[in-house]
Amino acid sequence: MRRRRFLVLLPVVVLTLAGCSPTPPAPSSSGIDSLFAGPDVASERAACLAERGWDVRLEGTAIVGNIPPEQMTAYQADDLECLEAAGIDPDAPLSAEQYELIYDWYVEIEDCLDGAGFPVPERPSREAFEETYDSEPWIPWSAVPDLDAQRAGELCPIMLAPTS
């Protein structure tokens, strides 16, 4: 199974699918921004997706657009190919430090969502998180109803990809 180093970008996609308007820049969790591709990669990826017929646009380093749920599988396949075309190897293994950064960021997201009254799935141990990252990942915002995604992003901007 492909490693999804860029799985951490999912909060932006979830908020985009809910049709929200842009939110203020997200605070950057210590070091997490090192896991995100820069503006050149984002621009190349967005252009590739647009060439493939997807209605997307670039906002900062986030690729946003309305992707109908029934087209999500096709979009994800194209997005993966565009990511590879932009020079990112989604199969590159994560280091122990990268897993730790992601886990700590996800804990921050979970704490914020829980504190704001949103449902959150049970937090796994660090070891279980790493072991299941590719097969059954723990995604703290996965229990947030789609209709609440915009509000969750506004109350917990830590969910958004770092903009620096």
Automatic annotation (TrEMBL):
<protein>
    <recommendedName>
        <fullName>Secreted protein</fullName>
    </recommendedName>
</protein>
<feature type="signal peptide">
    <location>
        <begin position="1"/>
        <end position="26"/>
    </location>
</feature>
<keyword id="KW-0732">Signal</keyword>
